[in-house]
Every structure is written in C-alpha cells, then in structure tokens.
Write a structure and sequence with these properties.
This protein is an alpha+beta fold and about 140 residues long. Helix content is about 30%, strand content about 30%. A hairpin with a 5-residue loop joins strand 4 and strand 5 (about 135). The chain binds zinc ion.
C-alpha cells in the first residue's frame, strides 16, 4: 500500500541585527533601494522548515525532535543575537534580505537532511516580521 505523503514543519525563532546595503552602490542609491532597512536595525525572526515524505511504519515522516536539533545546531546557534552582515560566516557573501537568508538556511541544512531520505526538504520559510515572510523551495529562476 502506498504511504500517505505528509509535510511536517518545525518552527524556530531568533533575534538578530542586520543592515541592507549593497557595497557596489552609492550611499544615495542604497538609501533609495532599501529605505529604512539601509539603517542598522534588528528583527525578531522566525523560520519554518518543512520536510515532506511518506508516513513510515513508525507513524512518522521524520522525528521532529531530530529536525529541531539540526535547525538549532546548524542555524539558530549561528544567528541568534548576532549581526547577520558580519558575524555569520554562511551569510558573509550576501546582502541579508529575508530572501537571501532563506536560501542560505536551505543550503546549510540540505546536506544534513539527506541522511533522512526518502523524505525531502520541501520549504524554508523566513519571517522577518509577523506580516512579512518569504518561501524558498530550493529552485532557481
Ligand atoms: Zn530588516
């Protein structure tokens, strides 16, 4: 009998500072492009990681507790109470918009989650505030 396909999600929170600034642009262009976010400020971020897979004989897609441990080890411990522009090695090459943060988080955990095949990383959602969030499914435009 085929296994039902289910998505499971773990949510984590962290607080961090950042500044949206492109060093290739002038200060004036940066202010125009990023507005208030060109100034150093902070967010109470949340992010959700969704893994998709069949429900096995254990009744689970993947142990959510293990997913939590991976997220805390690979992401939260590196970004909580940090400055995303300068303190986080895996964000050093990008402008820390929510989009780039979501892609960096995906790249950070994808290899770890391969150990849990056949379930697959399905979505990384990053909330910069309660109203604004971005989704990444591991695809390129
Ligand atoms: Zn911001």
């Amino acid at each position: 009998m085929p296994q039902p396909l289910v998505e499971i999600t773990r949510r984590e929170v962290f607080s961090a500072a950042h500044r949206l600034h492109d060093p290739r642009l002038s200060d004036e262009e940066n202010r125009r492009l990023y507005g208030m976010c060109n100034t150093e400020h902070g967010h109470n971020y949340a992010f959700e990681v969704t893994v998709r897979g069949g429900v096995s004989a254990s009744g689970m897609v993947m142990d959510l507790n293990q997913l939590m441990l991976i997220l805390r080890e690979e992401i939260v411990s590196h970004v909580d109470h940090k400055h995303l522009n300068r303190d986080v090695a895996f964000l050093r090459e990008v402008i820390p918009t929510a989009e780039n943060v979501a892609v960096a988080f995906w790249n950070r955990i994808e290899a770890r989650l391969r150990a849990f095949e056949p379930c697959q990383l399905h979505r990384v959602r990053v909330y910069e505030s309660r109203e604004n969030f971005v989704d990444y499914h591991g695809q390129s435009a």
